[in-house]
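Appendix B, example 12.
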Amino acid sequence: MNPNEKMHPGDIRNLIVFMAVSILLWLSYDHFIIKPHAQALQAQQSAMIKAEQTPEAQQEKERPRAEVISASKRIPIKNQELIGTLNLTGGRIDDLSLTQYFRKVDKKETVTLLSPSGGPFPRYAEFGWVPVTDSKISLPNSDSVWQVVSGNALTPTTPVTLRWSNGQGLTFEKTFSLDEHYGFTVVQRIKNQGSSAVTLSPYALVTEHGLPEEFQGNAIVHEGPLGYVDGELVEHGYGGLAETGRDVRESTSGWAGITHKYWLTALVPDQKENMTYRFAFTPKKTLHGKDKYQADILGTARTITPGETAEFSLKMFSGVKKVEQLENYEKLWGVTHLDLAVDFGLLYFLTRPFFFVLNTFYGWVGNFGIAILMFTVVLRICVFPLANTSFRSFAKLKQISPAMYDLREKYKDDRPKLQQELVALYQREKVNPMAGCLPILIQIPIFFALFKVLSVTIEMRHAPFFGWIQDLSAPDPTTIFNLFGLINWTPPSALMIGIWPCLMLISMLIQKSLNPTPDDKVQAVMLAVMPWFMTYILAKFACGLVIYWTFNNILSTIQQYIIMRSMGVEVKFFGKNKAKSSDLLSSIVPDETPSKTSDVSSSPEESAEPKNISAPKPKKKKKK
């Protein structure tokens, strides 16, 4: 291909800058537009529910969670990770909280996993049977009151068995077991003491009424019904499931449940029995006019003849989405890819290794902020050869900048000829102007992958660094607009630009001052605005990400400074960086006759004069 037909290096750089800006715009759109819209939708939903309540509905209006729990008989649930109660009305698990995780950094209120119907934000697990042929069979429902057969508390050492009889010869039992962490085992039995056979199918469900209180409403992490069925990850966001209505699949392997950013409640049936997995949406037909989102499983029909007993067993996970914990349950229960409940995204090949390295470093030092700094050093070592080449290319571009200036002056009215001569200059001096763009290309996926890790992994939640940073997954709480707390005034969220974002801005400006100024004026303006734009956007994101970017800029600047000095470039931060005259002469002027080098400079005499080469004649340009 003719070199003149190739994309110009400036155009390629424009494309890379465009890609970087597009990703930043996408992140800012998600944070500033989608998330506030989801919060407004939540508030609107609550207002509509309150306005649409009839006098009859007012009698059954939403009650406080504690009041609903105290209104029914219950069995305590407790281990080292969980605390709650088992509801004897309906035989549901509808009251479950974490003991070691809190809603806020102040650790005043624990995280709630499951809540009963009739209270705020209902979310619960239910287990039972449905008829296959005879729909007149009396079966237990949400109003059925179960009797305790054994166990006065559900703990890792004491299972609980409940019983209910329909008065027609059928006796139903549920046995609940709990391990040391987040795993439940539920065994359902039917004893047929009647005179005729019955055919029933076992079911289990996790349901949620309305949008959850902790709903994030962004495109970074999946929230809502989720499952892994027949080797495929099934993700239905709240809005997506409302559009499709339902999704039904059959498989002998899989799991299904409802996930939030950090928490998961999932049903795991026997991995050898053919099951029907369903993800369903019911619009405003439940109590208080709330939409209902549900993930359920239906087992193979069982025919129970008189005198026989049928049984159905399943596992339930309800707890924290810690990768290591989920992988342990995969091995223990023989289920596949329960770890995919952690939304590592399309860059799984980067996010998962990043998480592993960060978590390993945290195990060594006990501080995720220090782990991020160690991770940054490892990344810089991995990309060192490529970055070294790029920075050398930047330094060479600075060295030949006087010759480039002369060419632009000589061919300022003939752009095709100018591009041709610039390409010839690059080839003659063995300069690759695109090599300097490689760090940007590398940083884009690394930046996004690390952002994903900090956003979705529970290990980063409420993890402190030093000083005022008590949560690396949250933005820097300080702001320059009240002098970092010296002025007793809390600015609006749009003005929350803290100490670490300001340090990041300084590091970006220092690094930018070492790079050559682009030829294109539009591109030069974009690169000049970029540090300020990125600072404003990233100030609203996880502080751990800002710390990584700042430290990475510092390491990159040190590396670039050393390389430029070794190549004879006089480094002046926030000024014009020049090469030493002797090095410029040997680097720029090729070993040819003056007539052959006239394209590089205005005249042989100018090429032989070090002072003219090192200075791009700004005064001469002004006179013109």
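The chain is about 40% helix and 20% strand. The first strand starts at residue 74 and ends at 78.
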